[in-house]
Amino acid sequence: MKKYAVFIILLFVLPNLYSVIFGHESYPFTPAPMFTHYVDEKSDFYEFLFFGETDTGEVKLKARHQHNTSVVSQNRFFFDQIYGSVEHNYPIGTVKEDSKKAFETRLTQFFNIYFDYPEASKIRQIKLVVNKYDYNYKLTDAHVVGIYDNQTKQFTHTWEKN
Amino acid sequence: MRMGFAAKLDRYFFQERNLVFLGLLRIALMLRVMHHVFTNRSVELEYSALNQLHQRSLLVDFLSKTFFFDLPASVFSVIFIAAAIGTLFGIFTRVSLFVFGIFLLYTTGFSASLGVFDHENCLVSQLLIAMAFIPGVTNVSVDRLVKYFLKYRKGENFRLYEAFYQVKSSVWGLRLLLILLACVYFTAGFSKVRFGGLKWMDGKTLTFYLDGHASPAKQGRIPPMFLSGQNVKPAETWKDGFGLYSYSYGNRQYSGIGRKAAEFVSSIPLLIMALSILTVLFEMSSFLVFIDGWPRTIYLLCAIMLHVSISLFMNLDFVSYRIVDFLLVDWIWVFRQLPALIPSKIKETYAQLEVFFSRPVSKLDRELA
Question: Which residues of B touch A37 (CB under 8 A)?
Answer without folding.
Answer: 195-196, 205, 227, 245-248
